Amino acid sequence: MPATIYDIAREAGVSSSTVARVLRGDTKGDRKDSAERAARIRQIADNLGYRPNLRARAFSEQRTKGIGLLYTDDAWVFEGVNDKVLQGLVRELRKHDHHLLLVPVDAGGDWEELLLGGHVDGCVTFQPLPDAVRDGLRNAALPCVMLGDNSDPEMPHIVVDDVTGSYSAARHLIALGHRRIGLYVHKTVKPHCSIQERFQGFETAMTEEGLEPNFWHCAEDEMIAVLTRGGARPTGLICYSDLESTLIGHAMWQYGLKIPNDLSLIGFNDKFATKYMTPPLTTVGFDANKIGTLGAEMIIRSLTGESSKAAPAITSVNVKTQLIVRGSTAAPPRES
């Protein structure tokens, strides 16, 4: 039979209630529970192979230990860097004995039963939510944290510092001598705060030097037509993501143009094995795992009531970006 808290209590010579408090990390206010005793109780639990009964704990605490990931489209969950965000999120939730449930909130889903029927304690999302869902969360008093999005001012959020990231990318190209520089977003990219913020950083860097902040939101064939035309074509291009950079780099090769000799190329996200491309891609990177980790910490704090007047709840966190310079950027062609 599996070990119980009563077995641990007998071995440690303490009450079962003391064991329960130690194992859930709640030893505040109990002067008899020294750090040494708590450590000994945990060691005995490990030696006996104790495994907590999460279902019983959830019942006694009147919590499900479930966190719902709300989404309207599968792409919001699996595209871009969100897989890395999920890794950090799930890993941190597990440390706190919580688990993640996928909750589609499209028109035909049963999200109301899942959210309002007590199946989750809180929620996270990658995207702006429909009004009906936001109203449901508010009415049910369910906390929700946005991951990588800050479009809802009422929700706490963890976001990438996209402004600084695109600013540093543009400054890098300017320092190399480029003057005709563009920012490219593929037409399939869904509306998102990161588009505006990456343009903001790009525009600031360009206008500081009196340069035109060229912006394209189109299909790759339209972008390729701009890059391969004669005359005053762009010599430097910052892409919304590494995927766009891969498409553009391949197209340049097909047209007999070389990266970075004919076009300096910068991506964003540091994904898709960018350092193994030919040439290795200069890109803006950030710790996507950290977004998930911080998001999990934020939602757990909201559930456990750790915030106070002395230490108010953190509602906004920016994850730093870093320009990773590789082989896809160089000085512009001489005739430029």
UniProtKB/TrEMBL annotation:
<dbReference type="InterPro" id="IPR028082">
    <property type="entry name" value="Peripla_BP_I"/>
</dbReference>
<dbReference type="GO" id="GO:0003700">
    <property type="term" value="F:DNA-binding transcription factor activity"/>
</dbReference>
<keyword id="KW-0804">Transcription</keyword>
<dbReference type="InterPro" id="IPR010982">
    <property type="entry name" value="Lambda_DNA-bd_dom_sf"/>
</dbReference>
<feature type="domain" description="HTH lacI-type">
    <location>
        <begin position="3"/>
        <end position="61"/>
    </location>
</feature>
<dbReference type="Pfam" id="PF00356">
    <property type="entry name" value="LacI"/>
</dbReference>
<protein>
    <submittedName>
        <fullName>Catabolite control protein A</fullName>
    </submittedName>
</protein>
<keyword id="KW-0238">DNA-binding</keyword>
<keyword id="KW-0805">Transcription regulation</keyword>
<dbReference type="InterPro" id="IPR046335">
    <property type="entry name" value="LacI/GalR-like_sensor"/>
</dbReference>
<dbReference type="InterPro" id="IPR000843">
    <property type="entry name" value="HTH_LacI"/>
</dbReference>
<dbReference type="Pfam" id="PF13377">
    <property type="entry name" value="Peripla_BP_3"/>
</dbReference>
<dbReference type="GO" id="GO:0000976">
    <property type="term" value="F:transcription cis-regulatory region binding"/>
</dbReference>
